[in-house]
Fold this protein.
Amino acid sequence: MNVSASARRRPFAAGALLLIALLTTGTAYAVTSSALTPKAAVAADADLISKGKALFTEGCSSCHGLAGQGGSAGPSLVGVGAAAVDFQVGTGRMPMAGAEVQARRKPPVYTQEEIDALAAYVASLGAGPDVPKPGQYDFSGADVAAGGEIYRLNCSQCHNYAGSGGALSEGRVAPTLMDSTPKQIYEAMITGPQSMPVFSDKQIPAEKKQEIIAYINYLQNAPDPGGFALGRLGPVTETVFLFTLAFGVLVAIAIWIGTKAR
Amino acid sequence: MSDSSHGHEVEPVSYRTTDERGRILLGLDEHRSRRTDTNPRAEKRAERQVAGMFVLSAVLFVGAIAAYLFVPKYDIIWVPVLGDVSASNFSIGGAIGLGTLLIGIAAIHWARSLMSDEEVVQERHDLRSSDEARAELIEKFQEGTAESGFLKRPIIRRSLLGAMALFPLPLAFLVGDLGPAPGNKLRHTMWGNKPRTRIINQGSGALVRPEDLSVGGLINAIPEGLVEVEEEEQSLNERAKSAIILVRMNPEELKSTQGPNWDYQGIVAFSKICTHVGCPISLYQQRTHALLCPCHQSTFDLSDSGKVVFGPAARHMPQLHLDVDEEGYLVAVGDFAEPVGPSFWERG
């Protein structure tokens, strides 16, 4: 009794007591929380991350660094989030085919399972936007006309009024949206891939994003009652088409009229 | 193929100049008969072709009416080269277009292969009129002057000249009335109406807080109170002047601002109106911080006071001084330091 009472008065006693208290709560929490989380899920998660790390080391680390910290050829991936990986790899932009100004859309190299593993690994490097859930980019019932207005305000500058894309500086381009899925459009907005600015859910709320997706979906399915869509790139394309083809035909007819029959 | 029925026309051959080897330098070629002139079967065939095309165009016109009546209005069909088109548009337009084209082709074919093909040269007469005709004109004019009494009646002559002299005067007054002159409207925007104006996200209508904007993010924004002013004035003039873009970058990437600490933690605000000819621009590339104008490719570096890095623009993009008010909303401390948009005469 005496010993413990005197010990309590010693300066180390308070620290030791605190340490014991922390350890006890920590252990208790760890035990309870691991009891609450299904062990299988944790294992699967860890499994996915290690599988992703293996894929990353093999296919991505030469540019992005062994720990995703970035290098001379590629930016750091710490904090870009799972959504960025799902977008870049899912649209085939990553891995890049070679040293280009800009990574272009091409058939994806990895399967969706591999992409999920890569995304899980990159997300484990630092917090970033998560892959959107189907409910987030479900645009059924969204107002297409309202989406058009937000699209023209925020997207049309680069991606063109009809979503067919356009030129940027120094050889870069804003890609066409005609092949983009709702999920990819949502991911591009929240992650801001390459030259594109970020449009987080605080900048454009989720339901407004759904309206934008509804509008792009409308553009993707819009028929051309007059034919000759010409990429819907507007008056320049139409004029070039008319000058080369229609004027050529008119000149040919003029020559036919002007020559003497045989 | 000589012809005497055309009085003023001359034998083509007399117009020909040749070189020493007999090659034609100027003038018409030797007359050459067409196949339809020499071969009756070719003639018959050409005749059938022309008539066939006329008949086919008649059939197509009837077809166009049938297409109008029977092709469903909203059906979309796929046509090679054209892509997905309205079945009704395609069939009606195609039939009328092709029918008209066939009439034209048949007419030309008829003229080229069946109508007379004699080469004729028609002489042009001199441009100058004959001396008699010129003398006659002068005589008529003098006769008219005398008959009108223009010289004999000074009161009419002078009053007419007076009326003609005053005719442009009302126009001069109307031209002077173009305006009013813009005054200082081109020099100020709504951001200067009151100090510390809050900023509205144009897409969502919400007031902007700094934490709303991610690094690499962009917001198209307008001043608080703009919508009310627009409703009162029934005009978009204020919007045209005060539209801005807000972008956020890592503070260490920010090289300079137009005033000391005009950014707020890496958030910068710039006018959206190009200083070249006034196109609204928000074509911002977040990795290079380049703002590109799609009209003439003027490019501004938003991380370096909005300076021009490429293109025809002569002035940097005007910047707003940003801060945060006591409630945590992003505010513009005051107006732009210079007029926004393209240059104008009195700008200086």
Q: What stands out?
A: Chain B is about 35% helix and 15% strand. Chain B touches chain A through 46 residues (CB under 8 Å).
